[in-house]
Amino acid sequence: MESLGHVKPQSLRFEQPLPLKSGAQLPSYELVYETYGRLNADKSNAVLVCHALNASHHLAGTYEGQDKSEGWWDNLIGPGKPLDTDKFFVIGVNNLGSCFGSTGPMHSNPVTGRIYGADFPVVTVQDWVDAQARLLDHLGIGQLAAVLGGSLGGMQALDWSLRYADRLRHCIAIATAPNLSAQNIAFNEVARRAIITDPDFHGGHFYEHGVVPKRGLRVARMIGHITYLSDDVMEQKFGRELRATELGYSTQDIEFQIESYLRYQGDKFSDYFDANTYLLITRALDYFDPALEHGGDLSRTFASARCKYLLASFTTDWRFAPARSREIVKALLDNKLDVSYAEIDAPHGHDAFLLEDPRYHGVLRAYFKRIAGELT
Q1: Which residues are CB-contacts of 122 (< 8 A; sequence separation ≥ 6)?
Q2: Active-site residue among 56, 98, 102, 151?
Q3: How many CB atoms within 10 Å of residue 195?
Q4: Which residues make beta-bridge pairs with 339?
Q5: Of the chain's two ends, which shows fewer C-beta atoms within 10 Å, N or C?
Q6: Which of residues 40 and 255 earns the better pLDDT score?
Q7: Cβ–Cβ under 8 Å, residues 349 and 236
């Protein structure tokens, strides 16, 4: 299978204010995005891919002059790959509030002229989907062949199918849930408190002080990373292996290899991710609950849906367990919708949706082949 080679991001500025679910609005904003493949004559082959917490618009391909710059879903998207760019026009959009180019806390508020910082308005999955819809309007795409996403991206795909029911033919939601469990919200809150209580956070206005709350970001990432891996993978990779040849009997030094690995992940994350963005995106995860407006009834929630669905989950994913996907599947079946479901026995935990598992990729390849067969 070929690589897409070098790709270039694009940006689009919107001067029309974007109303937000919170009641606030963004007076103007910019979205950064990438596209791969070619849009066909009747614009029926477009696939929108929605990203998860710490990802971006850079789905596939590489950046010229940058080492290790492969897109985060490069194993899935490209010529001859399950999402084949010889057949589909693929769009990746960086969400508002991110730190990878689209308007977020690190940018200037056009009203005050100051960096937003903690004053950037709270954004939700619905707000992201509304912004994505505006971008598609600009591209002249009235209806998508599919919306695809994993984890938080899967929530966006589900929201597309509910709020823009006529604008997509297929919804593909991987390793996701209809809302977060109390345990998931708890993990997010502990991670947020690690950031907020960092002395360098300065109430979210740390940019003005020329510092970064790296200690908080490191801990937040360590907490998150534990939840993305399965116990089996952690045991296989690290077990109780020591960093040195024998115990050092220290309460503060690194003793075990798993500790070293988590600190490495935390250090790396704190060098590139924005603290306010982390707070915003984890809150968007917490708030997602489309059934709330229907008395918690998920079947009623999907009564207005019209597209076809593919859901996939992974047996060792305890953060977005298969049972949560099955809740969605039941609601779809209650409404007699066309739904396919794959529960994949994979050892990798939640991170499995990012990896090149042959069974998982086989499911997606077959489904996108089905979609390609529907194209005119």
Answers
A1: 20, 22, 24, 280, 283, 284
A2: 151
A3: 23
A4: 309
A5: C
A6: 40
A7: no
| % of the chain at pLDDT higher than 70 | 99
For the cut 80, the answer to whether the pLDDT of residue 2 exceeds it is: no
294 is catalytic: no
> In sequence order, which residues have a C-beta less than 8 Å from that of residue 296 and are 6 or more positions away?
none
Is a pLDDT exceeding 90 seen at residue 234? no
Please state, rounded to an integer, the average pLDDT across all residues of the chain: 95
Nearest Cα neighbor of 55 from 107, 100, 106 is 100
Task: Please give the CATH topology (third level) of the domain spanning 184-283.
Answer: Rna Polymerase Sigma Factor; Chain: A (1.10.1740)
- Identity at 97, one-letter amino acid code: G
CATH architecture of structural domain 10-178+291-374: 3-Layer(aba) Sandwich (3.40)
Query: 326: annotated binding-site residue?
Result: no
Report the alpha-carbon distance of residue 80 to residue 315 in Å, rounded: 28
Cα distances (angstroms) measured from residue 371 to each of 136, 144, 150, 175, 297: 19, 11, 19, 21, 30
Which pTM does this prediction carry? 0.96
137 is in an annotated binding site: no
Q: Which of 74, 198, 317, 357 is catalytic?
A: 317
| Mean pLDDT for the stretch of residues 355-359 | 96
Of 64-68, 107-111, 159-163, give the range with the top mean pLDDT: 159-163
Domain-wise residue ranges, the chain: 10-178+291-374, 184-283
User: What mean pLDDT is predicted for residues 302-320?
Assistant: 97
Three-class DSSP category at 177 = coil
Q: Provide CB contacts within 8 A for 14, sequence distance 6+.
A: 28, 29, 30, 31, 131, 134
SS3 label, residue 25: strand
317 is catalytic: yes
- Does residue 348 carry a catalytic annotation? no
Active-site entry in 130, 230, 350, 357: 350
Cβ–Cβ under 8 Å, residues 72 and 151: no
Does 10-178+291-374 match 184-283 in CATH topology? Answer: no
